[in-house]
Design brief:
It contains 22 helices and 20 strands. The protein starts with 10 loop residues before the first helix and ends with a helix. By secondary structure, the protein is of the alpha/beta class.
């Protein structure tokens, strides 16, 4: 067998396994205590006064259902069942505390910013305040304050503190790490609207967009990591082959040390917590350089993580936030304390990050955006797919790495689709997403975050129109609003010759491409050949086999059949792309293991039985017998014929 007996695993793993077995035994024998811990909830839901009034079968069903909700195990095996109940018992027997994170009115109230007038234009660098990054609400242009523009020295000092804290954190158990993540999750769940408000204020998105893209995704990541992370990072045994049958081989996942993260501005809460969650669970410290465009909320978000660490007796310096401009990001990449860099942003800046990391041969993960296609085949029901087209193109004003930037509609349904989608787009309510400065916050689309990005969007739309595309609505900044708003836009007649077919828009624009003759091959060619990005993709068809077949031919890191965006709510899947969309993965076992050094380990399988070097090939090598002896070994182990193996044995005997 390639799997060794327990006694052959190194002492640390054996002790850990023994401790787990003891905990599991206590879990099973203490089932009544587990039920009692959840008593109030269960009794209240069932409307009874005591568990004696509950039928045993109902009680067992409730416990198992709760367990599998935690683990999301669709087809439970005995090991899944045991693991699910064990995890449930950990949650019930070890509740986490509620933490308090101080907030001023700008976070706790929609109308909590003192400045009710707003600036005429956002200027992040104010000459009168050197060394500071100015922070604004992009929807109202209200000044929110300022943060430090950190220097290279500041960055190095922060990374040094994180590295020092990581030394003790790397020795914590997975159970201890789960407690910290659960504490973060408890705060997030209890303060979801407050977090949405902070994100909305810093990035201009409606609260619902923040809830879907920031809070829900973060909570699911924590749930998934807590449920599955320990198994994903468990030593993985590997087959050894007949020549090394006396050996045990496995891969162990060792924390890198300090992860340096350069996060984008489109989802300020999730983009920070995303890597903090996986980094902390895998035993690392995490230092995040947040975008200068969304630096205001970073202090609040980081204090959630730091307080969760502190309340459990861990060093809060494990999580650091870097604010500033390009100098700070470059210093993070170059810092000797940083062991791996994770970057999300444009391909141009991604190449610079790679170049900076290459000086020290530092590994990087690059998520460089996308230009995701959504395909509507001729057999879809138009009323069913319109909501997905709307969500894919206009959520967060189109500022999504895996948002829909190219909508391929088959020719026979193209005109009907256009007739039905245009009223929906024109009816979108755009405005300030919070009830502040005289606004109600009752909007569908918020503002854009970067002033410069609106210029890019305008250039791409103007180029498309000049080359023959039809502009049905939008196509300009919203003249009725003061902030950084670009009107929801629909373009049809988009062709490969237009820049908008190839370049990332990152704005509220629906680009419709007609697929000629309802031809699947033509569709695939249009998707693959006109664009160098390859992040996500989705195909809709009344036939699941057809959509899957088309999707299998699309060159992208992710594909969804008859759905959109749900892969990111399945955090057991890796997230990432190919070509200009970068390389490396977030999420799933691939993403979690990406936070670790993969170390190959070989040990003796049987105590006292070790590898020896046969005398014919030991130094000094026997010039007459060394080569024939080696050939005999080759024949014995690798010759496919019985006769060849016999000859190999004879050669070993003769020359041994």
């Amino acid at each position: 067998s390639d799997h060794p007996p327990e006694e052959d695993i190194e002492r640390g793993y054996k002790a850990k396994k023994k401790a787990k077995a003891k905990r599991d035994e206590e879990t099973m024998s203490g089932c009544s205590a587990v039920v009692a811990s959840a008593g109030e909830i269960l009794l209240g839901a069932l409307g009874v006064e005591s568990f004696s009034d509950v039928p045993p079968a109902t009680l067992v069903l409730l416990v198992l259902s709760s367990a599998f909700i935690l683990r999301s195990v669709p087809l439970p095996s005995p090991s899944d069942l045991f693991g699910a109940v064990s995890l449930l018992s950990e949650y019930l027997l070890h509740p986490v505390p509620a933490i308090a994170v101080e907030c001023d009115p700008s976070i706790s109230e929609d109308d909590g910013v003192e400045d009710k007038v707003g600036a005429s234009k956002i200027d992040l660098a104010d000459e009168s305040q050197p060394g500071r990054v100015q922070c604004y609400d992009p929807s109202t242009l209200q000044r929110l304050g300022s943060v430090r523009a950190m220097t290279a020295r500041d960055v190095n000092e922060s990374c040094a503190r994180a590295s020092k804290a990581q030394a003790s954190w790397s020795a914590t158990t997975f159970a201890q790490r789960r407690l910290v993540l659960r504490t973060i999750q408890r705060y997030v769940v209890s303060n979801a609207e407050r977090i949405c408000r902070a994100s909305s204020r810093d990035s201009g998105k409606p609260k619902v967009d923040a809830l879907l893209g920031e809070v829900m995704t973060t909570c699911e990541k924590i749930r998934c990591i807590n449920s599955n992370g320990e198994g994903w990072l468990r030593p993985e045994f590997r087959p050894v082959g007949p020549m090394m049958m006396h050996k045990t081989a496995y891969v162990e996942y060792v924390p890198f040390g300090v992860l340096g993260v350069i996060a984008p501005w489109n989802y300020p809460f999730h983009n920070m917590l995303n890597h903090v969650i996986s980094g902390l669970f895998s035993g690392n410290a995490v230092v995040t350089k947040v975008s200068e465009h969304t630096s205001w909320s970073a202090d609040y978000f980081s204090r959630i993580c730091r307080e969760a660490l502190r309340v459990h007796g861990h060093d809060p310096e494990l999580v650091q936030v870097i604010t500033g401009f390009g100098e700070a990001g470059a210093a993070l990449v170059d810092c000797s304390h940083v062991d791996k860099v994770i970057f999300t942003g444009s391909p141009g800046v991604g190449r610079k990050v790679m170049e900076g990391a290459s000086k020290n041969l530092k590994p990087v993960i690059l998520e460089l955006g996308g230009k995701d296609p959504m395909v509507f085949c001729d057999d879809v029901k138009i009323k069913d797919v319109i909501p997905w087209a709307m969500r894919g193109c206009f959520q967060n004003s189109g500022q999504n790495c895996c948002g829909v930037e190219r909508l391929f509609v088959y020719e026979s349904i193209h005109d009907e689709f256009l007739d039905k989608i245009l009223p929906k787009v024109r009816a979108l309510r755009q405005g300030v997403p919070l009830a502040t400065c005289g606004n109600t916050g009752d909007v569908d689309c918020g503002s854009m975050i970067m002033e410069g990005q609106m210029d890019i969007v305008q250039e791409l739309i103007d180029d498309a129109v000049q080359k023959g595309a039809t502009l049905h609505c939008g196509g300009r900044r919203n003249p009725a609003l003061k902030g950084q708003f670009y009107e929801p836009t629909v373009l049809s007649g988009v062709t490969p010759s237009m820049r908008i077919s190839r370049e990332e828009v990152f704005g509220p624009v629906m680009c419709i491409v007609k697929v000629p003759d309802d031809d699947d091959d033509a569709c695939v060619a249009l998707v693959n050949d006109t664009c160098e990005f390859g992040l996500g993709s989705s195909v809709y068809s009344a036939r699941g086999d057809r959509s899957a077949k088309i999707g299998s031919r699309i060159r992208a890191g992710m594909f969804t059949s008859n759905d959109f965006g749900v892969n990111y709510l399945i955090q057991s899947l890796p997230f990432g792309g190919v070509k200009e969309s970068g390389f490396g993965r977030f999420a799933g076992p691939e993403g979690l293991r990406g936070c670790c050094l993969e170390r190959a380990v070989v040990k003796d399988r049987i105590p006292g039985v070790r590898t020896t070097i046969p005398s014919p090939i030991d130094y000094p090598i026997d010039i007459n017998k060394g080569l024939p002896f080696g050939i005999g070994l080759i024949k014995l182990f690798y010759d496919e014929s019985l006769w060849g193996k016999i000859m190999g044995i004879l050669g070993l005997i003769k020359n041994g």
